[in-house]
Amino acid sequence: MLKKINLRISLIIQIILFCTVCSCANAENAAQLKLDKAYGLFKNGEYNKCIELCNAILKVNNTNYQAHLNKGQCLFMSKQYEEALAAYDTAIKLKPDYTEAYGAKGDVLSEINRYEEALAAYDTAIKLKPDYAEAYRAKGYTLSRLERYKEALTTYDTAIKLKPDYIEVYINKSYALNRLQRHEEALATYDTALKYKPDDKYVLYGKVVTLSDMGRLKESGELYAYLWDEKIIDKCASIIKASANSIDEYIARGKCLLSIQLYPGALEAYDMVIKLNPNCAEAYATKGSILAAMEKYQEALEVYNIVIKLNPDYAEVYKDKGYTLNKLKRYQEALLNYDIALKYKPNDKDTLYQKASTLQDVGKKKKQKNYMISWALELLKII
Prior knowledge:
Layout: H1 2-43, H2 47-60, H3 65-77, H4 81-94, H5 99-111, H6 115-128, H7 133-145, H8 149-162, H9 167-179, H10 183-196, H11 201-213, H12 217-229, H13 237-241, H14 247-259, H15 263-276, H16 281-293, H17 297-310, H18 315-327, H19 331-344, H20 349-366, H21 369-382
């Protein structure tokens, strides 16, 4: 009788354990399905929905490090940088060897101009995963932003060795080579990229610009014409190829060309808008941003001044002018323009970040504590 009772108890315990295991497995499967759905929302650009779903997952299990990472990625794309950093830090705290979280953290830090911290995050990711090509690419990009082009080239070469068809790295490497006036090597790098992806519009456009910088205008023009004629530009092709006669048509053309980074054509389109409407502040503002993207900073400043004359309370332009002045290392003027932008738009995070970054640059350059204190205070406003 006692043996039968013990057997029944043993069976009951086994059934309970089996049910518990099944329940845990089901919960894990359900969480994974939600994570997959969150990733799908992220890929589709539905960042708010992605954040909501990640929050729902974390409400059930706050130790789900993948949910923290996914949430951070969506926050990053929504330009909620401090919140994204917090999410990545939580993921790393839960899983200290989480390579992807260190890489993602580096991306945020690089975006908000905290370059040295970004490099440290990428180095940690690389230490954890020495064949992490994406981390090498991102590190090289950050080194380029610091104008440490030779170091960037070494890093890009490692990324290419790990992933020979990494098109983005070839583009970034060519940019660094151009900055070092090594144009022939830049062209050779673009050509290598084209072997892997012959119709990549960004590679082709980079080659157009490099040929132009070298004074090889005929070749540059021919390649630009090829870009114009071929349907590499996808849905914008019909808009760009159609004849434009009105302001709206030129704006549509300019936006399409700008979206695929064909800056000379976009510049031409906005010049036509300005010709048709000399008082269009928005057209001048876009023209200024195009010139800045082409690193023609002095010309960009002249255009921004016209915008301000036409529309003195255009906050976005004061911010862009501040950025351009910062690139020219005219820091005090940059700070003045950021302050004017904040007068019209007090809580603009992008402006606050850029101002904080400029204060940090000035503080490091002059080794003055008051600038670093001001930088810290500006960061507190954002947080």
